[in-house]
């Protein structure tokens, strides 16, 4: 019943932009912290960004100034605008929902992920 589905991934050249969307269903989005994570081949999953129910945001150091997280609770949508993309941004990007904090172990729900590839 609870579901998160990411869309918007694809192939983009370095310096380009993509906007990822996360559609939520089966729970009340307005009571959850929403986050984006990513995992590159052979590497551990890392936090990209999270946004609280009150709109407070956090960004990982590697994406500050380039990525922007936003949410629309009424539409049950979360976005990740990614600008000035770099090859090291290549990864599977996951949307997740947490009832507690932005710590990865607190996330209750996860989407299946969407592939982002940054290459010339």
Outline:
With 120 residues, the chain is mostly beta strands. It has no helices and eleven strands.
Residue runs with pLDDT of under 50 for 5 or more positions: none
Mean pLDDT: 96
Number of helices: 0
Report the β-strand fraction as a percent range. Answer: over 45%
Order of helices and strands: EEEEEEEEEEE
User: What is the first-to-last residue Cα distance?
Assistant: 40 Å
Query: What class would the helix/strand composition place it in?
Result: mainly beta
Rg, nearest Å = 13 Å
> How many strands, which pairing sense, and closed or not: the largest β-sheet?
7 strands, mixed
Identify the overall geometry: globular
Fraction in helix: under 10%
Number of strands: 11
Please explain how this structure is put together:
- The chain has 120 residues and is an all-beta fold.
- 0% of the residues lie in helices and 51% in strands.
- It has strands spanning 3-7, 10-12, 18-25, 33-39, 46-51, 57-59, 67-72, 77-82, 91-98, 107-110, 114-118.
- Strands 2, 4, 5, 6, 9, 10 and 11 form a seven-stranded mixed sheet that branches.
- The chain is globular.
- The N and C termini lie far apart (40 Å).
- The model has no long low-confidence stretch (mean pLDDT 96).
Structural descriptors:
mainly beta; 7-stranded mixed sheet; 4-stranded antiparallel sheet; 11 strands
What's the SSE blueprint?
Blueprint: E1 3-7, E2 10-12, E3 18-25, E4 33-39, E5 46-51, E6 57-59, E7 67-72, E8 77-82, E9 91-98, E10 107-110, E11 114-118
Parallel strand pairs: 2-11
Antiparallel strand pairs: 1-3, 3-8, 4-5, 4-9, 5-6, 7-8, 9-10, 9-11
């Amino acid at each position: 019943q609870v579901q998160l589905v990411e869309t918007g991934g694809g192939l983009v050249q370095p310096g380009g932009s993509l906007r990822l969307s996360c559609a939520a269903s089966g729970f009340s989005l307005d009571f959850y912290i929403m986050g984006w994570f990513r995992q590159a081949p052979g590497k551990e999953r890392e936090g990209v960004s999270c946004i609280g129910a009150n709109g407070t945001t956090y960004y990982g150091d590697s994406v500050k100034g380039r990525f922007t997280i936003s949410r629309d609770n009424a539409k049950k949508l979360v976005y990740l605008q990614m600008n000035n993309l770099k090859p090291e941004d290549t990864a599977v990007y996951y949307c997740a929902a947490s009832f507690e904090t932005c710590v990865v172990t607190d996330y209750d729900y996860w989407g299946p992920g969407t592939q982002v590839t940054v290459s010339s």
